[in-house]
Amino acid sequence: MRKNPNVLMNDIINNVEQVIVGKRTTIELALCAFLCGGHVLIEDIPGVGKTSLVYAIAKSFDCSFKRIQFTPDILPSDITGFSMYNQKTQEFEYQQGSIMAQIILADEINRTSPKTQSSLLEVMEENQVTVDGKTYKVPQPFTVFATQNPVEHIGTYPLPEAQMDRFFMRLSLGYPTMEEEISLLNRFNEASPIRTLAPVSNTAELMAIKALVPQVHVDVTINELIVHLIRLTRIDTHVMLGCSPRGTLNLQKAAQAWALYQNRTYVTPDDVLKMAVPVLAHRLVLSQEAKFKKLTAVEALNQMIANVKIPR
Q: Are 95 and 77 in contact (CB under 8 A)?
């Protein structure tokens, strides 16, 4: 690796910020999820830069990128691929689907049928697809960035809990401030910076950073904090379905990635608390009483964080 991991990660974030104005925290979280090999659900209204964020990360690492526009008529075979009979060889040959790339943008994932949504379950968990009994590995590193519009519900299919749990993080961008939007106008006046955005790293360096994440030390007291917080989500009266063990593992990985980004070789309680909401909130299924009170999963989780005992 040419640079210190912290320096390289900051170079990537600064490069993405040429396209995405004023959303550094979201970029940082998306990068940490990518370095953990996790998938990201970006939930926000149209036009705030969800697609540009994903494309900028792909270009910064010089990764292969494919965008899948999810519509009601898209089929599972369009994603995973299919077998076609070759008359010359008299054998069936695998025709790659659109999933065969390092970074996948699953645009408006909730606009396709549950059958097509479920075609992503295997590849998101095991980094492979199975077609006609044969297994095909996807290129590495591999991450799915999915987007959905939380406001418009006509013609959409809510993501099932099994699929939501496979997303490492859920993020949003939100509207820019007045100063950020003015800067946006000046920056995009002549042409979009995404067209001229140059790579600042490569997949070899990316894989090297990914290998460093599990090496970040996690003390036993930190693991106890993580498990305590997870168990609170399972007994809270506002929650009908709490976090799974997958959420436990993902929270630890996310805290390690954040510690590495902070140029530390160990995880602190603040790292865990920083990553708790983006990693855990989307995994919670609230009770009807909580929904009646118009309580959100983020608010419920923040209440639990306020009650958790922090080791010192």
A: no
| Model confidence pLDDT, tens digit, residues 171-183 | 988 888 888 888 8
For 92-132, the pLDDT digits (tens) are 877 888 888 899 998 888 888 888 888 888 888 888 888 88
Mean pLDDT of the chain: 87
Element (H, E) at 239: strand 239-241
User: Where does residue 22 fall: left (phi above 0), alpha (psi -120 to 50 degrees), or beta otherwise?
Assistant: left
Q: What is the CA radius of gyration of the chain?
A: 20
**Identity of the amino acid at 290:** A
Single-letter residue type at 139? P
Q: What are phi and psi of 128, to 5 degrees?
A: -155, 160
Please give the sequence-ordered ranges of beta strands (E in DSSP) within 70-166, or none if there are none.
Answer: 81-86, 91-96, 103-107, 128-131, 134-137, 143-148
Q: Which positions ≥6 away from 209 have C-beta within 8 Å?
A: 1, 5, 8, 9, 35, 260
DSSP symbol at 174: -
Q: How far apart are CA 298 and CA 276, in angstroms?
A: 10
Strands 143-148, 167-171: pairing kind: unpaired
Going edge to edge, which strands form the sheet with 167-171? 65-69, 103-107, 143-148, 39-43, 167-171
43, containing H or E segment: strand 39-43
Give the range with max mean pLDDT: 12-16, 86-90, 235-239: 12-16
Instruction: Give buried/exposed letters for 185-194 (b at 16+ CB in 10 A, else e).
Output: eeeeeeeebb
This prediction's pTM = 0.88
Look at residues 184, 167, 166 and name the one whose alpha carbon lies nearest to residue 175: 184
Among 59, 99, 35, 55, residue whose Cα is nearest residue 253: 35
pLDDT over 90, % of the chain: 30
